[in-house]
Amino acid sequence: MMMRRFYPLVLATIVSLTLFSCQKKQRQKEERFAHISILAPVRSLEPRFSHEKSMKNIVNMLYEGLMRLDSNGNVVPALAESVAVSEDRMTYTFTLRNSSWSNGDPVTAYDFEYAWKKSVDPKYAQTGASTFYAIKNVAACLKNEASIDEVGVKSIDDKTLEVELEHPAPYFLYLCTCPTYSPVHKKIDCDHPGWGSTLNPYFISNGPFKLKKWKKGVEISLERNPLYFDAVNVRLSGISVQIIEDPNTQIFLFEKGELDWIGHPFNPLPIDVIGDFQEDGALDCVEAYGVSWYFLNTEQPPFNNKNFRKAVAYAINRKEIIDHVLKLGETPAMGILNGELAVQEKPHFEDGNIMLARKYLKEALKEMETEELPSIVLSQRANPLTSRVSQVIQDQLRVALGLKVEIDQVDWPVHLDRVSKGNYEMGEMGWYSLLKDPIYMLDTFRGRHLASNMSRWEHPHYQELLKKSDAEIDPKKRKEYLRQAETLLMEEMPIIPLCFNSQYYLKNKNLKGVYVSPLKEIDFRYASFSEE
């Protein structure tokens, strides 16, 4: 009798413990954070600063713009419920869906207008201001030739935003996916202008995650935002971002299971230690729309001579560098556009053509009225892999052309400052597109005055071709103008392209649903962990 009474209790206890265990496992599964790392501290999480490399992808987790990229890289509506485009392709009218800031306030068209105009106001503009050039009067405003009120962004009401462009821009909706195009809460920014630099009561966002913890130089912790308009489909509880300045330490922590993702698009993996991962198939890779190249200072000799620039470009053997130094599946760059951005299949010039290089050098020396070979200073960031590439180029130019090349290696901030200010001769740099369109890369050289144009090169016919492409609605005709522009660029050679890169990374095998874009963006919106 006692056993009969006890048996239901035992059974109930077992069922209860089993249920508790299942619930605990389910909670652990539901509360799973993704652990990632970046190399450098973040100075601000305000969208207008998000053009800076270390901030871009974190800002993208915190904010949502009018449009976003889906898992196939296509532009789809985000906070824009719909968009209407005028017949001349010059005016875009966005109707916003109902959505909220993480404090519960509604996101309005006025928040977008305020954020975009502040981004291009000369008093506040950061490097990300360049992403707004397609909008009417932005370029003029940044040069103080037009007022902020003349910029083509206007709120019709809470739910309607009207945008006028300088010219038809078939890539404009792609621009709207950039983190710099995110809204900012107008009232909070006016009342508390430093809100984006620390964790404080006024730091709010409207994306899939919100800020939970921020310890400068150490850690940034994000948690799921329950007020995000698509929160029902966000499965991660949050994302933990560790600031780890040594890539080898990142690999160590990844192997211990303390990090779920290392490598691109946050930072490159050190080549010396990833060979084993490559061999056992653990290394993942996606294409990147970008190129490693060398800016040439066209305002100073010897690179103010076109034939000298071409001599150096043709003498470099890119395949040799890729096969024996880089060894990560890069491809020789005989232009500046790759993948879906490419406007021409045929290479613009021949890799490692020493005979032609010597011919160009002979013509250059004649034009410079000298028989003495000039020396070259190759400036680069302090990086072991970059140093090896530079040493190979140094040797190739010595053997092919008899040129003496001095390698000047400094820390990245110093290197960037020197090249930006024109205090260099030949400067190493990586360049990536922010758009799924050729215009971003080609626009770098539109004018000598542009901060991005570190070669200081300018050509009236190149400008004319880009201007024609701006006004052209027919996609085929526009592509032809862009093709001619790239051909001219490679004929003039204000930069020397080296190779097209890929994005390599290591991730937890159970982490699914993460999208890595060729534009070097990463999206954890719909990521989750599968059963281990």
Automatic annotation (TrEMBL):
PROSITE patterns listed in its UniProt record: PROKAR_LIPOPROTEIN (PS51257), ZF_SWIM (PS50966)
Annotated ranges, domain SWIM-type: 161-201
Keywords: Metal-binding, Zinc, Zinc-finger
Coiled-coil features, chain-numbered ranges: none
Superkingdom as given in the UniProt entry: Bacteria
Protein name as it appears in the record: Oligopeptide-binding protein OppA
